[in-house]
Amino acid sequence: MTTLIEQLARFAVEVTATDLPDDVVHESQRILLDTLGCAVASLDDEGAQRGVAHGRVIGAGTPESSVIGTREKVSHLGAAFANAELVNALDQDAVLPPGHVTPYVVPGALALAEATGASGATLLEALAIGHEMSYRIGKCTDYLRDIKDGVVVIPKVIGYASTLFGATAAVGKIKGFDAETMADALGIAGCSSPVNFQRSWMMHAPSTTIKYQLAGQMAFTALTAASLAELGHTGDRQLLDDREFGWPRFIGTSRWEPAPITDGLGQKWTFTPFQSFKPYPHCRVMHAIFDALTEIVDEQDLAPEDIESITAWGESFVLQPNWLNENITNPRDAQFSMTHGLAMAAHRIPPGKDWQTLEAVLRPSVLALTERSHFEPHPDHAAALAKDPAARVSKVEVRAHGKVFTGERAYPKGSPSKDPETYMTDEQLIAKFSHNVDGVVAETERKTVVDAAYALTGVDNVATILELLAPR
Hints:
This protein is an alpha+beta fold. The chain is 48% helix and 8% strand. The protein has helices spanning 4-14, 22-41, 46-58, 76-89, 102-116, 120-138, 163-175, 179-191, 198-203, 215-230, 247-251, 259-262, 287-300, 321-324, 331-334, 338-346, 358-361, 364-371, 381-387, 426-437, 443-453, 463-468; strands at residues 65-66, 73-74, 95-96, 99-100, 147-148, 151-152, 307-314, 373-377, 394-400, 403-409. The strands form 4 sheets. It has a 4-stranded mixed sheet with strand order 8-7-9-10. It has a two-stranded antiparallel sheet with strand order 1-2. A two-stranded antiparallel sheet has the order 3-4. Strand 3 and strand 4 form a beta hairpin. Helix 2 runs parallel beside helix 20 (426-437), helix 4 (76-89) runs antiparallel to helix 5 and helix 8 crosses helix 10.
């Protein structure tokens, strides 16, 4: 019997850039551009700098891969760890169910592609495979927005460890693995999987500053699994087939429905309709509310001191300590606090890296408005989600000048939905990238990076893109 891991391995090695559907090519290229911008934007973030420092520790040796946005090079292992931490630091990286996928899938493949002089076409294949595999496996497990008896119920164990298979497959694609070596790499990755600790992260405030999954660890583990398979170690290929003693058991998922893993695998691509991009450097659960709030503040030309109170209604499952936290001491706290996020959005600071400076996070007017802001679960949230998984029904009321201004949204900006206005266009994504790299990458090089990302199959050597992001 061919195991699930063996089928995934065969899929990964057989994918070629010329066979990819147009939408897969387009979204994969957009993911790369957005990821590069998110990394550069995080260079001054203290938490990201810790990841870069550790990347130097494990990256001693051959200087072969870039710390994105710098002229510094370390080993591809060190660069992958550092860049994963940079990408995820400000929480503005692309999202795809089961949640954050990109900061775990892209950095290992990208660092190795630079080190080996891989082509843009090979990197494109790797990114597409990594996201498709991550989405398929994620569909089989417990999900943050699972609904039971009409109520959104958070599983007791939840996290993004499932993305390690996609991250490893992406690395294996860069290495040019055959199906046997790829299967061993995936089997090793599964046995090396980190724990899913996201639920404890939710429940303990203030929470750890490594957030919900240590991105650097994920990238490093994917590279390690691939290297060990290449060196001759064998992997457990039955991990995904064994519900009782395999990966579903020891990763802690209560739901394991593996049919989506192989449904049309190799014939149809499933991740692109669910691929989202974040306009705000803040937890995605608040974005639809931010859209409505910033529209009110702009239209009414409200200053923070004009606002008497802000009340928002949104996703019900976020009534957990980490999201309710108002003891803000660093940008990581701010990224998930709902009321602090409302206050930040009302200050009309351009979304991006400027939201996450320590000065902005601890600005007295932001902290004061945080105390005048409130969050409640939207009564229609679960019903809307049951009808449409993309729905994020939200409402906000702003009291100012003795009046009440109300805004509502059904979907957040950045996600494909029934409302075409929510899709983040190429022009908007490029604007986000440009803002994120401003002050580091000159305009000429910035444009060249954009052009290269959107014509990735024409790039002979991925290293040329990373070179353009290094300051002159």
